[in-house]
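If you are new to this repository, start here. Below is one unmodified record pulled from the training split, so you can see the exact layout before writing a loader.
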Amino acid sequence: MDRRSFLRASALGSTAAATGLAAPAYAQGKRTLTLVTTWGRGLAGVHDSAQRCADMITAMSDGQLTIDLKAAGELVGAFEVFDAVTSGQADMYHGADYYFTGQHPGYAFFTATPFGMTAQELVNWYYYDGGMELHDKLGEVFNLKSFLGGNTGAQAGGWFRAEINGPEDFNGLKFRMPGLGGKALGYMGASVQNLPGAEVYQALASGAIDGTEWIGPWADEKAGFQEITKIYYPAGFHEPGAGLSLATNREVYDSLTPAQQKIIEVAAGEAHQNNLAQFLSNNGAALQRLIAGGVTVREFPDDVWDAFGAASQQVYDENMGDDLFKEIYESAQASMRSSSGWLTRSEGVYRAQRDRVLG
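And here is the target side for that same chain:
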């Protein structure tokens, strides 16, 4: 029996045993919960979202829950937060769930997947087409209760030391890209690196990597990548609307009162929307500053986009043997196609016409 089946069987047994028993006992009094993050302290936007979650939970609970935020490296490393929370070493984490595809590839869908959902399509799926329930189903396997808790919007294709003229230019390229998008680049011959955000600048500056994606113009400018190279691709295939997650150890979550549980959910949802607005409101002006400072903006050629697509499908196909991955994939695809069918014909046409009319 695999772990998921075991946990489901245990849950059913617990439910049967609990019939007729008193309501669960909740921990009483003020509590401090430790929140670890995948972000270095001060990383533009992403650390802000984690801090907003922490501050809102503390404020909304009227101090009954105090969230003690530990940035990456202050308690555990950036990529260690998942294990820290599942094991109970920490109570909560804030991060990008696609860092944890090694635990299960289905986690990628709750951040971003190649040729996947935009930010709007992601929330449509999450709140109305079964995404939240699948996030919870996946969390049951790993002792987590998770919610969307941030969003960067569409992420840039990245910074390169040399222009990309064809798919062959990725062969041997040392490039930083996490998640399933990174897997796809690997199939195109790239040497893919998965580095925490706080380590990316130094790796690019030292030549340890030849290029990197991070987030978008505002966060990239704050990180200083324009000091190292001037070649920038604003459009990428890998993260069209990257969600961030706030996850709580399930035993800790279950020990909270229903009101406290709802506070975590609501705080995460508000942080998601606030964070998306934060990124999108800053990116346009930041891109103009980068261009004024000498950055040249490029677009990948069509044959590169075609290669991205073929490699991405290879990544999806290799994971279809996992039933839960397949379930999440099919749910996300169905929702995305439904949402896109309307958005393309309404907002998409409107925006194209607005740009044409207003210039």
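Two things worth knowing about this chain: Residues 1-23 have pLDDT under 50 and may be disordered. The chain is about 50% helix and 15% strand.
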